[in-house]
Amino acid sequence: MSGATAVGAPAPGxxxxxxxxxxxxxxxxxxxFGAVRALADVSFSVAPGTIHAVIGPNGAGKSxxxxxxxxxxxxxxGQVRYGDAMLTSMEPHRIANLGIARAFQxxxxxxxxxxTENLLLGRHxxxxxxxxxxxxxxxxxxxxxxxxxxxxxxxATFLDLGDKLDTPVGVLSYGDQKRVExxxxxxxxxxxxxxxxxxxxxxxxxxxRMAEIVLEIRDALGITIVLVEHDMGMVMGxxxxxxxxxxxxxxxxxxxxEVQADPEVIRAYLGAGDDSGDDAxxxxxxxxxxxxxxxx
Amino acid sequence: MSDVVTSSxxxxxxxxxxxxxxxxxxxxGRTAGTVFKAVVWAALLVVLLALPLYVNEFWLRTGFVVFxxxxxAIGLNLLVGTTGQxxxxxxxxxxxxxxxxxxxxxxxxxxxxxxxxLALPPVVGGLLAVLAAGIAGLLFSPLAARLRGIxxxxxxxxxVFIGEHVLNTWTSVTGGFNGRSAPGFSFFGxxxxxxxxxxxxVLGVPFGQSERLWYLGLALAAVSYVFARxxxxxxxxxxxxxxxxxxxxxxxxGVNVQAYKARxxxxxxxxxxxxxxxxALSVGSIAPESFSLAVSVQFLAMIVLGGLGxxxxxxxxxxxxxxxxxxxxxxxxxxxFVAGVGEGGIxxxxxxxxLYGAAVILIxxxxxxxxxxxxxxxxRPRRPAGEVTAFTPGEPAQGxxxxxxxxxxxxxxx
Lengths: 296, 414
What we know:
The structure holds 2 protein chains of 2 kinds.
Chain A: H1 2-8, E1 24-33, E2 36-46, E3 51-55, H2 62-69, E4 77-82, E5 85-86, H3 92-97, E6 100-103, H4 115-122, H5 131-135, H6 139-158, H7 174-186, E7 192-196, H8 204-221, E8 224-228, H9 232-238, E9 241-246, E10 249-254, H10 256-261, H11 263-270, H12 291-295
Parallel strand pairs in A: 3-8, 3-9, 6-7, 7-8
Antiparallel strand pairs in A: 1-2, 1-4, 4-5, 9-10
Chain B: H1 9-13, H2 16-50, H3 57-82, H4 90-105, H5 122-140, H6 143-146, H7 149-169, H8 171-174, E1 180-181, E2 186-187, E3 190-191, E4 201-202, E5 205-206, H9 209-232, H10 235-245, H11 247-252, H12 257-283, E6 285-286, H13 293-306, H14 311-330, E7 338-339, E8 346-347, H15 348-366, H16 374-379
Helix pairs in contact in B: 3-9, 3-12, 3-13, 3-14, 4-5, 4-7, 4-12, 5-12, 10-12, 13-14, 14-15
């Protein structure tokens, strides 16, 4: 467990990064876009230190759920509590400051910036250098940058990105970019990691490796991981608990074994002529952008 | 802290060896590049410092105009190129700087129109003018919370019109339609104007107003350049660039989006304010027509020509757009197609505008990263694909002009 403490140890200088795990309680969350109900009274709870998967067919409301958790969307009703913090009434950057990090499904990195620079953004809330001290290159700003660059290098190495630190993200392969997404979220030193389809569009090997990485993160850092995923094999292999959404409703919640046996879940996935999500959330949620094309 | 990787042997072993090799390679290449760059910069600085000893007043005056434009262009590029907030109000912020300086440091009086003035020392007036422009930008920034892209640009257009109206009507401060003369600059008793200055000569060359202003402009432009360059490569710069590429990602990574937009406006307008003060000094007076929409558009042309998001590019673009009309004017006799003053045909200012107008179109079509991206373009063929180690931050990759990225909301999928 010595290696584990190495990754888990907070970067030198940022006080108070001691993980203080709290449960996430999602209570009766509804999200409406005009007449469309993307989420309807969804409730579930995520126990601290577990891997919790949210699954469902296309248009089920999974990403909407994530956007509520990270503060991008405001819920029409209901609330999300993280310990005693009310996430539903907080701005996204405040949620990040609480140590809730998110990796995006459709990669939202700065393509012109290098891997290091993208990852350093994750250190934003742990660093202080402002416009004046940065523009004048005051010693404290450069010292701070150097210190955090070291930690960024460790995290990049942990995600097999150690040899790509100075490469602009835009020229990296799709799989590498997905790992940069996860690495950037880890750079927040999170207590909760939200992973939005981390293996979407990946081949079998890359998927396998990402599953390992997710387990390693959990074991090494002991943090809570909430996962939205399509890849059933991966979800069932690593999740401690699974919440299943369909048409914005929660249709099942339990261990992977329980969920797999649930008749409602089987119907949602294999259901008779159910072309999933053709009206419920089609307006508000465009289909997959270009994941498939990008990998080919 | 050394042994990072946890339980997975695969992760531990694989990156270790290649890391050393590649980093060493990258560093080697960069050291040579750094030395080369340092030499070029040093040479440029020596030339710029020595120039007043050799060239005539026209070039020195043009130089000061260009230095002022460089400061303004760097400021606009921080806002538009780096942070992705389209603004057409740059001329307004220039006007705030120029007018505030003229009023604070100018003397009351005037021949036909009576104007007020506080006659503060020019340094104080200049600093307050820069601050006033910054505050004007700060006050405008909340609009950026509601409006994006072209809508923000159109909203900022309103400021230019309001500004022109105020300049025309607030006669006691601005001098009204005809404008007013701007006070010369002095720095702790050292005058930068021809009035009441002690004689000074360097190596037998008498240093008059234009020589002195040249050095003032050079210093201000250099400081502005270095500050912006440092800023872009640091924590605030990374936040600003992410704001441009994806507001949602920036917010989720802990960047206070609204506060950062406000700061970007603040800094950008301060640059504009300084540029405005320098403009007032170079012309010796201010008038409403100097701060029209065309000026905003010229600054946009500068940063597009030079390369959005690149500080060096902004400076290059400013040199082109600001110097061309003046040079054409000066050499109208020896240039074909360009007519002198009072003759028929294309006058110098128009000829220059045709030229950089065409240049803007060509750049957008064939070289979206601007003049700043040209070295990259010529370097590229020699490098294997995917190995762009000499990439400098703040300079957009080829074919990826940041202004084109307008998609902010996360694409949904579930």
